[in-house]
Amino acid sequence: MTLDFSAYPIIDHHCHPWSEDTKEITKETFINLMNMGGLSAEEARDPENVVHSEFTPMGRQILHLMAEFLGCSPKLSDVIEARNKRAAKNYWGYCGELFYDAGIEGLFVDDGYSEVSVGSGLARNNLEEFEELLTVPMRRVARIEPRFQTAVDESSSFDDFVARFDQSLEDAARKQRVIAFKSVIAYRSGLHIENPTDDEVRKDYERSKATRARDVKHIRDWYVRRVISRCKDLGTTFHIHAGMGDIDVVFDKCNPMQLYGLLKDPETRNTKVFLVHGGYPFSQEAAFYANALKNVYVDLSEMIPFASVPGAIEKTTQILDMAPPARVVFGSDGVVIPEIHWAGAKIGRRVLEESLSTFVRTGVYDEDEAHQAAKMVLAENARRVYKPW
Ligand SMILES: [Zn+2]
Q1: CA–centroid distance, residue 111 to ligand 1 (Å)
Q2: Which member of 19, 233, 313, 348 has the lowest number of beta carbons within 10 Å of its beta carbon?
Q3: 83 belongs to a structural domain
């Protein structure tokens, strides 16, 4: 028995924009994207690091897919040459061909950029321009941290900060029609989100105003709670980075287990909360919430395609072991070049085919149910929850 999900469209629930600058890429750009965090200019001069970077599972699996699509050998230099040649004619048309090939229906795009100094930051992109160039529809996900920092920087007092922050949420929801707010507090002070006192929040405001520090935990805990409690009225869901990521994540506080206090709090239960990145590698912890709490969902991005296909099959099986398929959504975390979004979609289907085959073989689902589950994860859940287009 083999399952074939190639006919099912995909909504990419979590990804990032890319720009015209990547119309032509170098081997080094590609290699940098294929390992977590990339190489600094100094690291890239060490041949030992180049060997490491040229041979990551992520890099190889994407190179093989690109070679097949472009009709060339999977040698890095051949793939990059063929890719640049094809992209040079009409970059956004080439992006459209990739999306058609992978059956991508549309994208949910994180508008975030790194508002404080971090090791491997995201650049700021013009999303209005990006949306016009895209050949598939997109909806915007509003990153909270830059909005928080801007409100602090521009405020004259704590009360003024609160008013500015609230207004920025309103503006995102009404003017930019965002479908979700997203927090990367896992990169700032960690996921152990508590209930700070008024005094603690005000002190952190003063410190943030003076230093733009990352680890102002009290006020960060405060804004996450404030946004979650407002999402329902604003007509959005809430996304939270859960699990590993770049090296500057607060690693000992990025396990979704740390979210227990926040997620079980009745105050947060009226908002749909998406654990972005499947909590990878702590996938079972993430999946538990999606079963036990009726407002929690798991997003598979980053794990697919940043982990290898065999690893992602195992983790996806662990997630589907506990989380009902109606609570799991596909995402790629594609970033900088469109090939990551495209490869993520192709790999995502493959991973689900393999994972759900196990569920069929062991009598959990019959074949029809496995197809239903795949359709839900790939696009139907996102369509049902967000009615995005
Ligand atoms: Zn991301």
Answers
A1: 10
A2: 233
A3: no
Q: Are 293 and 264 in contact (CB under 8 A)?
A: yes
Q: What is the pLDDT of residues 229-279, one digit of tens each?
A: 999 999 999 999 999 988 889 999 999 999 999 999 999 999 999 999 999
Residues sharing a CB contact under 8 Å with residue 87, sequence separation 6 or more, in sequence order: 23, 24, 94
Q: How many CB atoms lie within 10 A of CB 153?
A: 13
Per the CB < 8 A criterion, the answer to whether 53 and 35 are in contact is yes
Separation of 335 CA from ligand 1 center, angstroms? 7
Distance from Cα 110 to the centre of ligand 1, integer Å = 7
CA 358 to centroid of ligand 1, rounded, Å: 29
How remote is the CA of residue 331 from the centroid of ligand 1, in Å?
Answer: 9
CATH code of the domain in which 158 resides: 3.20.20.140
User: What is the pLDDT, as a whole number, of residue 46?
Assistant: 85
Ligand 1 centroid – CA 15 distance (Å): 6
Does residue 112 lie within any of the structural domains? yes
Q: Give the H/E segment covering residue 286.
A: helix 283-292
Note if the bond before 266 is cis, omega within 30 degrees: no
> Which pLDDT tens digit goes with each residue over 149-184?
999 999 999 999 999 999 999 999 999 999 999 999
Number of domains in the chain: 1
